[in-house]
Amino acid sequence: MAYMTAEGIASCAEPLPQVVTETDLYCRRSAFDVPSPLVTREQNHAQASGWQHHVKPGRHRLDRAQRKTIVRCFDNPGHRLHVRWKLAIDPVYAATSDLLADTSLPVLDVGCGLGLLGHYLSARDRLPDYIGLDHDSRKIAAAKAAALQAGLQQHMQLCPTDVAVLPSVQGHVVLLDVLHYLSAPRQQTLLAAVVPHLAPAGRLIIRNVLREPNWRFHATRLEEFFLERSGWIPGGAQHYPTAEELRAPLENAGLEVQIRSLRGKTPYNSYLIVANAHR
Question: What CATH fold (topology level) applies to the domain 6-277?
């Protein structure tokens, strides 16, 4: 499959469950916490010898001037505040940027929201062809305006998922704070749908809340309640998956799956899930 234009995206015929934008989970400076009990000793060893060296805390954070440049691309004061906070203290963009280093593969960002990942990758001089999809047409409109303001309209294709399609492209796939806004069956459908869009050297990068019997999970649920009430996430959370609910279908699809904490010093129960073909 090859990279497509926005017109090509609109003509695809592959169904995609409707998704909403990324969660506004504000994370502090350290990208990783103490290894989670979800990760076995063998898995920790695999991470240490495999992808962990790509995700060093703060290694590729933007400086203040770079963050201000991105913030100025957004006209809406609420969006500017959101972008300022996300770029300053959320470790997911630095972590994702490291995982996408040294690649020319296109990036399919499902649930892209305001397209912040594209701006971040551009600021790090590592923006390949970027395709962002989101259910919220208002955020896509704001994302397009910001991309135009930044001069990135040739590199960032941004489309509402009202057309209910995935573009015919293979590369990396990113799902940042998306899955828990879908029901359990639709989560499985989406995971199955994105796997064929991974190139042989592509990565599936997921950041999501995981359901666990601890206070962090309940703190996350409280935060999600306020996000829904604020109108930022219409409909709110539908199902919080367990680690096994994400790991099993991806491993059954032939992918190697690694899971690490990505909550920094926040009280939220956030994890980074990285899946790629066995090498």
Answer: Rossmann fold (3.40.50)
